[in-house]
Amino acid sequence: MRKGRPLPAVARGSFALAYLGMAGFLAWELAAFAGAFRAAVPSLGDRGAAGAVWAVAGLCGLFGLLLLAGKVSEPWASRVSRWALALVFLAAAVPKILDPAGFAADIRNYDLVHRLLLNALAITLPWVEAVCALALLSGLLRPGAVLLVNLLLAVFLAGLIQAWYRGLDINCGCFGHGGAAEPVAKAALRDLFFLGWSLPLLLTERE
Amino acid sequence: MRKSLVQCLVLTLVGLAAGFGFNAVSPHPLPVVPKAGQTVKGFRMVTTEEVKFYLQEEKSTRLVDARSREEYSLGHIPGALSVPEDDFEASFAKAKDPLAKARWVIVYCSGGSCATSEMVAEKLAAKGLPADRILIAGEGFPGWMRGKNPIESGLP
């Protein structure tokens, strides 16, 4: 990963902090993420799911350290971040595509969107996430996909922060309606790490 | 920058088209404009105003508070029965008679149609309460308080 252009310091720092932060977050929320892995792949079992979470946390931590040490340059730093964001967005989109009524209920909880727009948003937003993810993975319309992923994450973060500020005890709904409840404060922290991956892409994409 | 904006718009429009298209061919499409009485997990959702209507007009309506016992004791909708999800069996044993006689059972929790009220609604249905008479308060206890409605506190 050493060959290629050097990474601007700001981008390198942001990527590194985001990966290291995500590694810590995964370890802190091990049970919740293991539950999500088990729900996605039931054959994993408890130990397999926990092992998978540790493996992902380890990879994030290792990549963060390599970035800090300057061992990762372009295009790999951006490429890995785009793929990671794409996987996250696909994981978020699929359950919501399969359960739009549940997602509409989650959007309603935020008390932000007019009742008449709830369903239209629940029907379309997951598909916008999925299309963005596929564009990030394939490289098709890449500058637009990078801008879109940043806009979506900024909007999601704003929604979560306002919900937390207003004391709304609601489920994030970020990865689907069912499953374990996820407090908005933790979801907001997680979104900050995702923005740590996505914001530098605006810089590296320009170069 | 302009190129990024145009591409961003194209991707968004593709996503919108895919969403509406998939919904149109889905065996269970969601109405683009919500109808009154939209359901979640098969239970009809009601607004805070509808909860008040049921309490005033349908005397055999019972409210179920699905939040924890602590949250219930700090404040709840007057007359609500405490049936927390994490202590369902013991709580249901005490609440089963009044619930069985109720024409409508409205379940609420701390955040609108959060997972807790749905889980309790499903468990009530599993215990034999007719599912079409179990409603979920879409705005929950926060919605009741936002309407400056009276509350009670303490445990029964």
Short key terms for the protein model shown above:
heterodimer; A: 207 residues; 8 helices; B: 156 residues; alpha/beta; 2 domains; 6 helices; elongated
How would you summarize this macromolecular structure in one to three sentences?
The complex is a heterodimer of chains A (207) and B (156). Chain A has 207 residues and is mostly helical.
Main beta sheet strand tally, sense and closure of chain A: none
As residue ranges, the low-confidence spans of chain B are none
How many structural domains can be distinguished in the coordinates of chain B? Answer: 2
Distance between the termini of chain A: 18 Å
Low-confidence stretches of chain A: none
Secondary structure class of chain A reads mainly alpha
Mean pLDDT of chain A: 86
Number of helices, counting only DSSP H or I runs of 4 residues or more of chain A: 8
**What portion of residues of chain A is helical?**
over 70%
Fraction in beta strands of chain B: 5-15%
Backbone structural class of chain B: alpha/beta
Task: Report what the structure shows.
Chain A is built from eight helices and no strands. Chain A has 207 residues and is mostly helical. In chain A, helix 7 (142-165) packs antiparallel against helix 8 (184-206). Chain A is globular. The two termini of chain A are 18 Å apart. Chain B has 156 residues and is an alpha/beta fold. Chain B folds into two domains: 1-33; 39-146, Rhodanese-like domain (Oxidized Rhodanese, domain 1, 3-Layer(aba) Sandwich). Helix content of chain B is 47%, strand content 14%. Chain B has six helices and six strands. The radius of gyration of chain B is 20 Å and the shape is elongated. At the A-B interface, helix 5, helix 6 and helix 7 of A face helix 1 and strand 1 of B.
